[in-house]
Request: fold
Amino acid sequence: MDEAAVHSAAMRVEPAVPGDAPAILALHRRVLAEGEWFITQPDEFPESVDAKVAVIRDAARSDNGVFLVARHQHALVGWAQVVGGGRRRTHHVGRLEMMVDARVRGVGIGSALLGAIVQWAERSPAVYKLSLNAFAHNTRALALYQKFGFEEEGRRKREYRFSDGTWRDDVLMCRWVK
Reply:
């Protein structure tokens, strides 16, 4: 499937609603099971549907957070979440996390989600900076973030150790929106 096919097949990005929680949780678990892109391992992820519903509701009430989903032919195929800082001195910073179903990666879902996040942040009166972490070996994600104006702020060498004994660097990135 190519990017044009996704756009022509009714792909849309919209705010998550509580009814999306089971599909969001299932996607979250599938991506974690891949074992390559996030520090959390599947057995370390106890989150429930009720917890996801609470996160979605919190984002909807927040002035410095948002939870968006991407749908392709009515199926939830990706999500992106910004959690705003919880203290007065960090309220202006939104921490980004994003996941796209492996079956549709590389066809524009991540770009659509990230573009919607950046547009939301630019309109938000509270958010001045978006920040994120990514593994240095996740070159595809790093390229996507750079395409949308994110810059590397720093790198934590050998921050994570995988079960096979290999190490991963943690890349810290940000994008100023104001």
Q: What stands out?
A: Residues 14 and 68 are 5 Å apart (CA to CA). The radius of gyration is 16 Å.
